[in-house]
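The records we work with from here on pair a chain with its fold. These numbers are not coordinates but entries in a learned vocabulary of local backbone shapes. To see the layout at work, look at the sequence and tokens printed below.
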Amino acid sequence: MITCHVCFRHCRLDDGQTGACGARGNENGENICLNYGELTSLAIDPIEKKPFARFHPGSRILSVGSYGCNLFCPFCQNYEISTARRGEARTRKVKPETIANLAKDSESSGNIGVAFTYNEPMIGWEFVRDTAKLVREKGMVNAVVTNGSVMPEILREVLPYIDAFNIDLKAFTEEYYKKLGGDLETVKTFIKLAAKDAHVELTTLIVPGENDSPEEMAQEAAWIASVDEEIPLHITRFFPRYKYEDRRPTDVEKMRELAAVARKELTTVMLGNV
């Protein structure tokens, strides 16, 4: 039996067993990244779609994703790949060198580098690290879109090669994070460490009745400002999806109210999906 120390779960795995994320497993006593190079998604997207507002605005970025996630959000927009395990999602095996070359070949069409996104990329940190090194060698940038729910030592493995993070700060209560199978303190630590060495933007999806109180937003914004008041915050609108298809979309006026609260502490607050 081994213990996986990639995230806060510290899954204990017998030989042949897969972790809660679906993307790591015990193979002959070794902690293996099962989704290494197994891509489910590849596209060149506007940088604003990640979303980034203050990182190379107006540019495009090669976006790649695999399968698996260590949170279980009932509203996940990409649940077909985030909840998949090995063999359950259609994938294509791609080497880090191939991604780096494709990024460079796309530079003439406005591509600035590679974004690791769609599923949770940090559970497969080895592929992120290996690919990002090669992308950096080609003079291009790397971005990660993440839930920020891995351990500090894992972040430190990739941080030297990552230029920007968009981190989901899904709420500011431990109670809500537990509903998602997460841990707020782990995310807060991730944000603080990432912000020391990379450009960081945060995203909070407002789910009606869950994380939409002005009081909670005030606490969240004050904490973000204690890290850096210039960290951009994206307050985004929820739409019914996955297990929350019976919920109503977030009221736009409620989002504007929460944005006004956040702007008392932060210099850059934007509304998304409106």
